Amino acid sequence: MLDLRPILLVNGILLALLGLAMLLPAVADLTVNHADAKVFLAAAAITLFVGVSLALTNWGHAGNLNVQQAFILTTSAWVFAPAFAALPFMFCELGLDYTDAFFEAMSGLTTTGSTVVTGLDTAPPGILLWRALLQWLGGIGIIVMAIAVLPMLQVGGMQLFRLESSEASEKILPRATEIAGSIAVVYVGFSLLCVVSYWAAGMSIFEAIIHAMTTISTGGFSTSDQSIGIFDSMAIDYITVIFMIVGSLPFVLYFHLLRGKPSLVFRDSQVQWFLVISFILVMVMTFYQTLSGINGIWQALRFASFSVISVISGTGYATLDYGAWGPFAVLAFFFTMFIGGCAGSASCGIKIFRFQIIYSASWQQIRKMVHPHGVFSPKYNGRLISSDVISSVMSFFFLYILCFTVLSIALSALGLDTLTALSAVSATISNVGPGLGNVVGPEGTYTSLPDAAKWLLSLAMLLGRLELFTVLVLFAPGFWRA
Predict the structure, then answer these.
(1) What is the torsional sign of CA 157, 158, 164, 170?
(2) What letter would DSSP give residue 385?
(3) Which of 212 and 60 is assigned the larger pLDDT?
(4) Where are the domains of the chain?
(5) Partners of 383 in the beta sheet?
(6) Are 13 and 57 in contact (CB under 8 A)?
(7) Model-level pTM?
(8) Helices 205-216 and 234-248 meet at what angle, rounded to 10?
(9) pLDDT (tens digit, 9 = 90+) per residue, 6-18?
(10) Dihedral, CA of residue 10, residue 132, residue 175 and residue 63, to nearest 10
(11) Dihedrals φ, ψ of 417, to 5°?
(12) In whole angstroms, what is the distance from residue 403 CA to residue 406 CA?
């Protein structure tokens, strides 16, 4: 019989930590005597009560998680957390209903960056800090999950990145705890460096803290409705580009930097592919702007670099509406949304390594057709790729396209126009944030969408962030009989 006690214990601990995090925006509002401080204190009390109750009533039953429990824990954690993180959005001066509040919280914790909030320029500091905290906490949670949990669960080819040879699933929780500590050091270090860089470039210290948290987590929430564009600073734009790239690379590789082996980072084929693809896209969009007479060469390079890296990393910051560059730009950015960053990063999307595996397997098949008697083996990072990894990646691609198609049709059935439906789903299932067009584009929000659409898009964020299989496996009847 399924033992839920370890699952409830971990969820209780996570909710308790979330409740403690709510005290920070409460302090921020208290410093300016804003009434929302009481909202955060009340939300913190509720969340702490539920979290501590769950933890105490299940204390001593942590045990060793099996695979079935690990799947349930992973999904339940990413559902319960936004359910309680939504409380401040409901009761603060924004006055969101629960649908909008849950959408905003889910967008924050999954580091998607889609928003239903307007008037950020005049919003109290507490709510701005809470949005950023959600993305910052979600970012480190995603990294730990991608490094310690998903490889053990063999989700979508992630078994390639297993950090130990042992197959024992009971090591999932202790291993995740061990890795979290190491990752936290690197994550906090880059966050502080980003704060200093933004502050030196002209942001206030509060703005620097908020944007550092949402840059390193590739989240994209800002302190202004105009996003990074409000600063109109080339220095800030390029600092943002650098740290969006930092957040998109595998955090495990940063340990090599700490050990004085930086060359190992750039020898990783995943990193090479990400940087090359990003460079090509930046050059294409730069020359497209220049040849179309939209911008001069240096301005075109600045806006292309920022927009391309923002979209491919899934950060979702904006300095302008790149959709206004014309149909070619719209189509190019639409497909860029799906690419994503590297496995083991805070980034999103399909992930670079899956494109590498599909390319390697496809090239092997072509060579086999030319030389029927030849023996060809697909490789990744110089290692042979097993058939189960290729099968997992192919299955992931199929499910990704299937989920994207079903959700897009569902949004169209709710009355959304084609561009809005397609780009909203691609932006949320890829955890990018802004879509395309006038409604959900870089200069728009998701506020005007019907409630049913917001719940569907919240599901898309969850599916994309948890690599599809982690959620969909719960709907398989055989899973509950295991």
Answers:
(1) negative
(2) P
(3) 212
(4) 386-481
(5) 380
(6) no
(7) 0.93
(8) 30
(9) 899 999 999 999 9
(10) 0
(11) -70, 165
(12) 5
Q: Could you count the other beta carbons within 10 Å of the beta carbon of residue 426?
A: 24
Q: Which of these ranges, 112-116, 152-156, 472-476, has the smallest mean pLDDT?
A: 152-156
Distance between CA atoms of 309 and 292, rounded to whole angstroms?
Answer: 21
Two structure tokens written together for 58: 């299940």
Amino acid at residue number 448: S
Backbone angles phi, psi at 383, to 5 degrees: -110, 150
Tokens 């126009």 -> residue:
417
The answer to whether 288 and 327 have CB atoms below 8 angstroms apart is no
CA distances from 142 to 136, 157, 343, 365 (A): 10, 16, 10, 34
Name all contacts of 199-205 with Cβ < 8 Å and 24+ positions apart.
201/233, 201/235, 201/236, 201/239, 202/231, 202/233, 202/235, 202/236, 203/231, 203/236
Whose tokens are 């501590």? That residue is 52
What does the block give as tokens for 181?
């500590």
Residues whose CB falls within 8 Å of the CB of residue 226, separated by 6 or more in sequence, listed in order = 121, 318
Buried b (16+ CB within 10 A) or exposed e, 244-260: bbbbbbbbbbbbbeeee
Q: Check pLDDT > 90 for residue 373.
A: no
- Three-class SS state of 209: helix
Helices (H), 201-253: 205-216, 234-248
Q: What are the start-end ranges of the E strands in 275-382?
A: 379-380
Q: How far is residue 314's CA from residue 248's CA, in Å, rounded to a whole number? A: 9
pLDDT in tens, 68-89: 888 899 999 999 999 999 999 9
**pLDDT at residue 176, rounded to an integer:** 59
Length of the chain: 482
Q: Bridge-partner residues for 332, per DSSP?
A: none
165-215 residue pLDDT tens: 333 334 444 555 667 777 888 999 999 999 999 999 999 999 999 999 999
Tell me how far apart the alpha carbons of residues 394 and 400 are, in angstroms, rounded to a whole number.
Answer: 10
The first and second tokens of residue 75, run together, are: 């999904």
How far apart, in whole angstroms, are the C-alpha atoms of residue 456 and residue 40? Answer: 27
Other Cβ atoms closer than 10 A to 362? 11
Contact between 63 and 4 under an 8 Å Cβ cutoff? The reply is no
367 and 274 in contact (C-beta within 8 Å)?
Answer: no
